[in-house]
Amino acid sequence: MATTDDVKQTLMTFILKEFLPGESPDELTATTPLITGGVLDSLATLKLVAFIEEHYKVQVAAHEVDVEHLDTIATIEHLVHSKL
Amino acid sequence: MQQVFPTVSADLVLIHAPASFDFRDRGDIYFPYLSTSGDVPITPLYEYFPVGFKTLQRYLTERGHVVKIINLSTVLLKYPNIDVHAMLKAIDAKLFGIDLHWMVHVQGSLKIAELLKSIHAEVPVIFGGISSSYFADELIRYPFIDMVMRGYNTLEPMSRLLSALKGERQFKGIENLYWKNRRGEIVDNQLTYLPEAYSCGIDWSSIPQESKTQTLPILEVLSTQNAGCSYNCGWCGGSREAFRRVYKAPTDKRSMARKPMDEIAYEFATMKEIPNQNKYHFYSVGSYNEPRSAIKSFIEQVGQSSFKSISYEQFHLTPDDILKDMAKANKRTYITLSPESHDMRVAALAGRGVYSPDEMERWIAKALDFGIHGIDVWYFIGMPEQDEKSVWGSVDYCNRLLKMFKGKGVMPLLCPMIPFLDPACTFFEFPEAHGYKVFHRTVEQHRRGMESASIINRTNYETKWLSRRDLTMVGYQAVKRLTQMKADIGMLPGSIAQGVIKKIDDAMEFIAVVHEVDCIADPADRARELGKLSGEIKRRNHAIFFQGVANQAFPLDREIGGRWFDEMLFDKPVLEAANGCVMAPQHAPVAAAQGMHG
Q: Does residue B447 contact residue B144 with C-beta atoms inside 8 Å?
């Protein structure tokens, strides 16, 4: 099973590549607010969830696509691990 | 226990009615999933009110009048136990203004007018908006409508009307006004106020704010830069010819009015005062009608703002220099194209067809290279010569786009044109010539149509190539297939796509059941059979209305509130207290939603 750090690193790489191209990796930490901070808009959020489902072979429920579960890399990692 | 509302006083209270006023209690009208076409995040109550409410509020306020807005659709969606009668009774106004902009509101707007008249017999009720202007002759004959204000820019006539209401009540000189005198006779002041300028800028500095929501918030503002259009799409009620028909403009005169540049600058200035502007999406409506100098100036102002993202509607493929300017002004710039069909012949008959799919593909690649963040590409269902095969051709073409751009940067979308073909558009006016059949022509026919149980029977038109049933069912099937395609390419999570597909399947199945009953010829038999479905209809409607709001681009329910048009007039604690005061079980949203999904 992927470690906490593995999951965080994978998410960070995906978010930097897809939604923050050109930004310094230092700008993105495990606690950077992604939705409330404007990094992820609604479409980007769906894309991120699609990536999580495909990469980790898990299913994210509709009610989990929200600020509580997806606002930081830390909370997303927690969501992913709860499903592995 | 009686619900208590504090008195709210104003000179003018503008009321946006739900499409169906009594939606909370009706077990005889079914509102299926995505029945708004799913383009904007609204429910089938169409809670989007016309921007004219906001321009009127600013203009009249600056002239000393007190103007307040209530979006009754939003209020009832958020607080389903509200006693509308008690709430309206608490409003102390000199004039009630109701919008009838698009006919989908006809049932709700008329019901609210009737209710207001029964509560405040002495307070005049005035109608305004595009459809009100078009149907003014008919509307003024309803006993509960006192006045109709026609026109695309009614700011000055409305100011004069409010002054008259505060003074000697002399309405004779007020242009564009249709009204009833003390003897109940109808007086037509003539539609003569047709200024060059379209409206004033909106004051965006105070828009509804919703305290932190758990779901992703819908934060968007917009700028409408003109009324009317340079183009003449036959299906569109805002087209060049429709504008001339509605406003009785001579055919050799202009077909649109522009918002002055300084008024657009005013809008940008007030937008800067929106808290957290950097979290808002900005939608530029009708920017394709703007001359080059105006769009350049507009983009410059976008560049000085801090919006999270911006969308521009474009009719033609945007020239390179403008594309570059757009991309530079905001790093998340989206462009909305509406080719309507992949088939050039159908597209041309729909009023488009100004670029081929090949040209569009090359342009998209270039636009993305220039730094445009995304392109939304809309295809319509309900166009001339568009049969089922043609619809599937457009769906297949969407798949080509998704694969070509690997699900990045391009979002194809489908819009089944239901329930209404706009009055005044060319296909509505000359249906036979274009292969259309129109079922509801008058206000009253539209009102009765909106009371049909089946969405198929609510639809006011069909074409030689797609019947009303086809428009609905083929539309659903097409959206369903496109949803699966988006999941396959990684644009939508598979689990979310499956949820959408399940809802579409369920809607199609139940539409067929309701439609069969709605078509029973004998009224008594129909009522009896519909009665048997009543509980199921209510459960499904409540799931649609009270679980939140979704659209095709983001097909997940989001909390209502905080959209720019979610004006609720009363303070939140007042509405919450009233809502909790009488808990009618049939209005309990959570229970209803759970009932739906077991």
A: no
